[in-house]
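Chain A, query sequence.
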Amino acid sequence: MNNPTTKLPRSIFSGIKWLVLASIVAWVALSFPKKDWDLLVQQPKNWWWLLLALCLVLSANILSFWRWQRLLLALEVPISFFETLRLGFLGVALNMVSAGSVGGDLFKAIAAASRSKDRRTEVITSVLLDRAIGMLGLIMVAALSTTLANNLTPQLLAIRNAAWILSLIGLLGILVIILFGQSLPLDLFKRIPWVGDKLHRVSSACMVFKDQPQLAVTMILQSLGVHSALTAAVWMVSSALYSDVAIRPNLLEHFLAVPPALLAGTLPITPGGIGLQEVGIDRLFKQIQTVSPQFSGLIVGTMYRAVLLAVALVGGILYLASRSSDPLISDLSKNNPPVDDSSKHP
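Chain A, predicted structure.
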């Protein structure tokens, strides 16, 4: 029987989370200038640009799912591309109701692990590792784009410097795995009581690039493509709302403002990064001196949120419409019963 005393704290915590979200959404709505709201609602929109933005966001998500599938296959977890799509879109849909824009990864990891009984540790590690590579790609896009621009404000200069430092740290970490992964004493983890075998399997999964350096290069390039496509999608949203090229920022200016704002949206503060991402886009566009004051990053960010919601809806429908488990995963679970995992996967 469920203890009602345990339900009460959970209910309170859940209520607090939704109250925080409602407060942030209300704050964003109240800070929305009336002229921008009128523009968002009344101004004619180029629906073809919005459709292109939707298709580009969908394509970027599919590319990221393919990246994850390649990693799973490298970790000897057989999975079809269709099942990767289903689980990937599940994560996209749940991102909208979980903390930050990466919270859906937790649900995706649980769903994927439940389909691979004897490789659960590797599956969960793959989700975390894939997200780390994705974040590295986003940071690298920010570093490269800010380097191409001139006359940066102090805030954008700070973003450029931080992005380069984090990019170099991430690339150096991958290089260390490739060059020295074979000689790292991972067996020492086995000596740790209770969790030694799990830690050993997690660390071994993280060393996947030591034998496959080409996989690391491919995943990084795919991540650069994903976040470049998402940034270009925001530019398409701007094109749909602002037909006047004198007002609309160009593509490079979008690459200055959007990637750092997308990074802010990953912070585990609000579901899907709602509010943080939109305000981040608006604030960073205001840091670009060549952007017209008539342009509102807030309404562009809000319309881009609508595109993300449409993609999440597509993902939810796809997942619910095809709930049968993947045959490859089922075969893996049936033909490979979990016996002595630590010795089977050193």
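The two ends are 41 Å apart (CA to CA). The CA atoms of residues 257 and 284 lie 5 Å apart.
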